[in-house]
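# step 3/5: fold
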Amino acid sequence: MKTINNYKNKKVLVLGLAKSGFAAAKLLHGLGANVIVNDMKPLEENETAQMLVELGINVVCGSHPLALVDESLFAIIKNPGIPYTNPLLQKASTLHIPILTEVELAYQISEAPFIGITGSNGKTTTTTLIYEMLKVGKKNPLIAGNIGTVACEVAQEAKNDNYIVTELSSFQLMGIEEFKPAISVFLNLFEAHLDYHGTKEEYGKAKANIFKAQTEDEFAVANLDDQEVSQFVEHSNATKVYFSTKQTIPNGACIVDNVLQFKGEGIINIKDIALPGEHNLGNILAAVSVSKLIGVDNHSIIHVLRTFTGVKHRLQYIGTKNERDFYNDSKATNILATSAALSAFTKPIVLLAGGLDRGNDFDDLLPYMNNVKALVTFGQTAEKLINIAQKAGIKTIEHVDNVEKAVPVAYNLSNPNDVILLSPACASWDQYKTFEVRGDIFTEAVHKLK
């Protein structure tokens, strides 16, 4: 960890707790800052806040008093999920107080270079693939961000021979200034989080912040098949490395005659890749690009591609019962992810879907529902999904209270050789704290089936 004096004796507000706020508050306290933590959850119910009080940190809980923000503030470190419409943040903006996320703090103290991965879909899979390739290739990776430990906790332990492989959301990337990954990855852009960003363009700009501090000494790995991603990366000063599943790229990653190539060098035939789903080929090309740029040998890359079958909650095979295959794709929190999951199967599908209503319609699912024989839906978006299923000509539609109740209903609607797929196309927050909780409940309900 670098020794920095940026925050010594400076007044810093940590807005919102959860894992990232807790880690940031402790780190800032250790760096000598005068830390104030503000969280909506009352102190008597807030175990995390109580732990900070025991460390001697000033904690204000139960409301967001505007008086916390004034000219004496050096910076605000905010929880990524708190929108910029929050009155404290709006006041801070008028006072030109920097509003950061803990990723920026992690970068400032880290001895190790970062590899940053963003995109609407495939971030977790790609981040995990890169981590595994670097680990097998003996490049000393650490994993951080949405997929693992909070970045500023990892950065405190990282040495200069490590790489911090970090999954980054648009929310996190809106709160950076100097953050400069040695290699950035922009996988794709799809209409998502409109309740937070307002428009797809603003969402894309937030993602593209991953490039903004990079120079030609760093690399930007980007999807040539996604026109909007390509347009955003063109404005980057980084050295650009493209990947494509559709085009031949002499200086990037692509597929030629079913062989995955990087800069013209054949690495592996795609039939030997263990990870299922055509949609994962882009994620694999991105991961190979990063690994080759760092100097991972082909043998290590091939080993990972032949053995890596996916991550939990992302098209995760749960098991087979009475000739029905069960898959947990709870991490499919938007339409594109569910479209990809539906495209991965040729068998008849009983689809479990629904969740938080973010204002999307679901018409973009229609071309992918040909194999869906039945829909079991739940959550705020149930009526919208019922309408789409009817448009798709699906005759069997059931509306239930939650995922746990959906599993036995889906089983009763299925036949041998069917796929029973949880792929919600929605965030979980209307009913479940996280998509992981939702996926675990699905998995447990599958195991309870008789």
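# step 4/5: annotate
Residues 11-100 form a domain with the Rossmann fold fold (CATH 3.40.50.720).
# step 5/5: archive (pending)
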